[in-house]
Design goal:
With about 80 residues, this protein is α+β, with helices and mostly antiparallel strands. The chain has helices spanning about 5-15, 15-25, 50-55; strands at about 5, 35, 45-50.
């Protein structure tokens, strides 16, 4: 099991640190673990890599219309 630093989580997820903390606070992202000293502002935080990877894997996939869909204009061929 690997513990991830803040910089590694930010690189994996591609959002800002305040966004990560807002998601954690709102229950939308895995909470980090405290290592070292205990207490609200002491010690370091690390995320469990497997939890972050599972969160990424469970993100909804974006749907795209089929290539032959009427929603996508077809390129006109030159005359």
């Amino acid at each position: 099991m690997k513990l991830l630093r803040k910089s590694e989580v930010l690189e994996m997820v591609g959002v800002s640190y305040p966004t990560i903390w807002r998601w954690v606070r709102d229950g939308k992202f895995p909470a980090p673990r405290t290592i070292g000293a205990t207490g609200a502002r002491n010690g370091s935080v690390r995320w469990v890599e497997a939890e972050v990877c599972t969160w990424i894997e469970n993100l909804p996939k974006r749907d795209y219309p089929p290539a032959n869909s009427q929603l996508i204009p077809k390129a006109e061929s030159p005359n």
